[in-house]
Write a structure and sequence with these properties.
five-stranded parallel beta sheet; 13% strand; 158 residues; single chain; 6 helices; Cobalt-precorrin-4 Transmethylase, domain 1; alpha/beta
Length: 158
C-alpha cells in the first residue's frame, strides 16, 4: 500500500481530478472535519459532488473523521495565522500550538492498525489523504503522513 496527499487550493477541478487519475488513486480518504468549502471556486470538493465524481472515476471514498482536527484545535491555528498575518489559503506551515494539540488530542488516540486493516479489507493500493490546504506542511495531513512514514509507508505529496 502506498499513500499520497492532496490539497485543493490553487487547483482547478480538471487539474485536481487529473492528479488522482494520473497517480492511479483507488482509495480517497477525506480527513476534513467539515466536508465543504465556501464559495463556488472549490465547490467540486464539497462532499456530495466530490463523492459523485470519485464514484464516476471508480475511486473508493471514506470520511475518516477521527483524523480531523476538532474545532478547538482549528481555532488554535486560526489564532496563529492571525498572529502571522497569514490567510489560511496562503499558509506555508502549521503553528507549533496546532501541531502539539493535534498530536496529543487526535493522533495519539487514532488506531492506525484498525485504519490500515480497513484499507486492506477494501483492497486499497494507492490511498490519498485529502484536506484543502495546498501545501502539506500547512495541513494536518503532513502530521498523519509523518506517522505513516514511521510505520514504513511511502508518501507522495501531489
Amino acid at each position: 500500500m502506498e499513500f499520497f496527499t492532496i490539497g485543493v487550493y490553487n487547483s482547478t477541478e480538471q487539474e485536481y481530478f487529473k492528479k488522482l487519475t494520473d497517480n492511479s488513486i483507488d482509495t480517497f480518504c477525506d480527513i476534513r472535519q467539515r466536508r465543504g468549502v465556501r464559495g463556488s471556486k472549490y465547490a467540486f470538493v464539497n462532499s456530495n459532488r466530490l463523492q459523485a465524481r470519485l464514484n464516476e472515476l471508480d475511486i473508493k471514498y471514506g470520511h475518516i473523521i477521527d483524523l480531523a482536527p476538532t474545532s478547538e484545535i482549528r481555532e488554535l491555528q486560526k489564532e496563529a495565522d492571525v498572529q502571522q498575518g497569514e490567510l489560511k489559503r496562503d499558509r506555508n506551515k502549521l503553528g507549533e500550538v496546532f501541531i502539539l494539540a493535534y498530536k496529543n488530542r487526535i493522533l495519539s488516540k487514532f488506531n492506525f492498525d484498525n485504519f490500515l486493516e480497513k484499507l486492506e479489507n477494501v483492497s486499497a493500493n494507492r490511498v490519498v489523504l485529502f484536506c484543502v490546504e495546498e501545501k502539506p506542511e500547512a495541513c494536518h495531513r503532513s502530521i498523519v503522513t509523518d506517522k505513516l512514514q514511521q510505520l514504513g509507508y511511502k508518501i507522495t505529496h501531489l
